[in-house]
Amino acid sequence: MPSTRSFLVEELSKLFEATWLELPAEVVKVMTGVSDSNGLRKAGWKAYDAWVSLANAFTNVSYFDPMVGEVSVRMMETALRFPQISRTMPSAFFINFWPLIGLSTRNEIAALRDELLALREELASYARLMVAEPSAEMDALDQPGTAWKRPQLDGERAEKGNPIRRSPIQVKRNVAA
């Protein structure tokens, strides 16, 4: 391991020399007009190469260490589990929070929807019975003061044999038009 450390120290000294000594000296030479920009370009590339070489050496040394490998494995596992955790957290929060504020749950809404569909089917079957044959019960409900009104036939269509029923509001709209 001492050879690795000396290699890192050597690369670090190359970076220091290129960025703190050679590069500023070339900048001063270009500013004073002693040298052209080719020397500055070479010094810049030397500093860049020293930086890349140091980063590469440091990466190689750090990946050689078993502790870094263990930490990186745990970070990868955590990153892969994060979407699963982010999907379960809202449901865990809202399971307790939803009833607290008095909102209905998904199961309650589904049961209510089923009840409404059953009621709609029952009303539709009742309406089909009412259209097919008026019963004596409807005649009893036609007495004054009752809230239920029997649908009335449009006179013109009734004469032609078409049993379409219209409400009093629809008849009034047709008369007004």
How many domains? 3
**Biggest sheet, strands in spatial order?**
1-2
Class by SSE composition? mainly alpha
Work out the helicity level: over 70%
- How far apart are the first and last residues' alpha carbons, in Å? 101 Å
The overall pLDDT, averaged over residues, is 77
Biggest sheet layout: 2 strands, antiparallel
Radius of gyration: 44 Å
Name the poorly predicted regions. 146-154, 171-177
What is the ordering of alpha helices and beta strands?
HHHHHEHEH
Q: Find the count of extended strands (DSSP E, 2+ residues).
A: 2
Number of helices: 7
**Backbone shape:** elongated
What portion of the residues fall into strands of 2 or more residues? under 5%
Write the layout of secondary structure elements.
Blueprint: H1 2-32, H2 37-64, H3 66-100, H4 106-132, H5 136-141, E1 152-153, H6 155-159, E2 165-166, H7 168-176
Antiparallel strand pairs: 1-2
Helix pairs in contact: 1-2
How would you portray this structure in words?
This protein is an all-alpha fold. The protein folds into three domains: 2-64; 108-133; 134-177, no CATH class. 80% of the residues lie in helices and 2% in strands. It has seven helices and two strands. It has a two-stranded antiparallel ribbon.
